[in-house]
Write a structure and sequence with these properties.
Pfam families: AHSA1 (PF08327). The chain is of the alpha+beta class. The protein has a single domain, classed as Alpha-D-Glucose-1,6-Bisphosphate, Chain A, domain 4. It has 4 helices and 7 strands. The chain has a 7-stranded antiparallel β-sheet. Strand 5 and strand 6 form a beta hairpin. The protein starts with a strand and ends with a helix. The model has no long low-confidence stretch (mean pLDDT 93).
Length: 155
C-alpha cells in the first residue's frame, strides 16, 4: 500500500540545534509541550536511544487513551529522527528533520501513514486535512517551549 503524507510543518527557530533536539526528544521536555502524550515507556534508558530503540507511548486524543508500540527506525542526533508506530489503521511514520542555519535551526516534521487496507486508504485521503488541527497546536507549543528554554538558559 502506498505511503500517504498526512501532515507537514516547518519553522525557523532562533535557537541552538542541540537545544531544539533535546526539547524534541527528551521526555522531561516533551511532556511539557505535547498535551497528547501521557507517558512514554522506553525499553532501556531514555539516554541511550538510537536506531532500533523501542518504546510504548500512551497518548490521549480527545477523550480516548491510546497505547502504541513505537520504534526509532532512524536516530541521528541532532539532525534526524524517524519514529514508526503500528495501529489498526496502518503504519504511522513521523519524521523530524533539523538543520543548522546561520540564525539557528530549521525544523521540519512530516507525518505519513501506510494504510493497512483500502478502507483506511480512502479515509486517510479524505480526512488528511484534519491532521493539521491536531498537530499544529502541538508544534506551535513546541516552538514556544523551545524559546522559553532558550530564554531561561540565557538569563
Amino acid at each position: 500500500m502506498e505511503e500517504i503524507r498526512c501532515y507537514s510543518f516547518e519553522s525557523e527557530l532562533d535557537a541552538n540545534i542541540d537545544l531544539v533536539f533535546e526539547c524534541l526528544s527528551k521526555d522531561k521536555h516533551v511532556l511539557k509541550w505535547n498535551s497528547q502524550i501521557i507517558e512514554n515507556i522506553f525499553d532501556g534508558n531514555e539516554n541511550d536511544l538510537g536506531e532500533g530503540s523501542t518504546f510504548i507511548t500512551r497518548q490521549k486524543i480527545g477523550k480516548k487513551v491510546y497505547e502504541l508500540e513505537g520504534i526509532y527506525t532512524k536516530y541521528e542526533t541532532p539532525y534526524y529522527v524517524n519514529v514508526e508506530t503500528k495501529t489498526k489503521e496502518g503504519l504511522s511514520k513521523t519524521e523530524y528533520i533539523l538543520r543548522e542555519t546561520p540564525e539557528g535551526t530549521h525544523f521540519t516534521v512530516n507525518v505519513y501513514l501506510v494504510p493497512s487496507n483500502w478502507t483506511y486508504k480512502i479515509i486517510t485521503k479524505m480526512l488528511k486535512w484534519s491532521f493539521k488541527f491536531i498537530y499544529d497546536d502541538q508544534f506551535n507549543s513546541f516552538i514556544e517551549y523551545v524559546y522559553q528554554m532558550e530564554y531561561e538558559r540565557n538569563e
